Amino acid sequence: MKKIISLLKSNLLPIISVAAFLVIFIVSPEKGEKIAVKFKDTCIDTIPILLLMFALLAFIKVAMDSDVIKNTIEKSKGVKSVLFAYMFGMLVSGPIYPGYSLGNMLIKKGMQVRVVVIMLSVWATLKIPLLPFEVKALGIKLTAVRWIVTAISIFFMALLSEKMLKVVDNKGE
Amino acid sequence: MVELIYLLLIIFFTIIVFVKDKNKLKIVGKGFKHVTLSFTPYVLAIILIASIIQVCVPQNIITRYLGEDNQIIAPVIAAFFGAIFDGPTIVAFVLGASLLESGASITAIIAFISSFSMVGLIAFPLEKKELGIRFTLVRFIVTVVFTVIIGIACGIIMKKI
User: Fold this and answer.
1) Per-residue pLDDT reduced to its tens digit, A69-98
2) For residue A165, what are the CA distances in angstroms to A81, A94, A97, A113, B143?
3) Can you give the pTM of this predicted structure?
């Protein structure tokens, strides 16, 4: 029973999506058929690039599996630390959750708040391993514009966050 | 064309890793299998949800709330929905592309993608635990505001180029 519940929990989204499709298909077979056709066409379009992206992810994960990179960002200062934060954030794969404890550790070791904000924000949204998929989904022009605008915005977000945190910390004292 | 470039890149990396260290290639293979098995159900599910939205949600509703005529409200609505949902960024790209096809504006979609990936209400407790409430709240507020700005900026630039 516990295994079944655990399986259900870890596959909630696929289960909900299939359930929704089945309900729609029963209520309106015509709409169900249109959804099935749309799903099939999108899968045919998406799966090749998805597999290539997964392969790229696997290579990057092996290259990134080294403490050298984490130590480099820890020991860097000033402009170098900002650049490393960008590079690290862009190359790392997976969800952002491990980034929180890494950020905590970096702040405790004296890293500037702006560097941690840049690292977390870039990690979240500018991912080189996902680039092929993003280009396929949004087109190369929009992808390029999004990357440039977001990268610049993240820098200002980091500066503003650092300033605001200083004000909040001063008021708190 | 994009697929061909990446296929050549993968072949190139495979040859380099094979020549340098065959054992690492086995690790890459295991990693590929793990990522494929863990991501694929998620991606298929979101493609299904995107297909359902495209077929069942009338286009005029998408254009009314997320369309070109709503340059300020659309990104705010999109950023709000992006903030409350959480998941792999790839989900945002699939949904975003689907909504774009259905008539949503670039402004709204980029705000949605930015917010979905950078703002995580579900991850808020974990971030608060590691980085403290002040850091988390400040980053949350600044990021939410900037996701709308990023959306609007991308929309303006895409119109000009």
Assistant:
1) 667 666 777 788 898 889 888 888 777 888
2) 19, 28, 21, 9, 14
3) 0.82
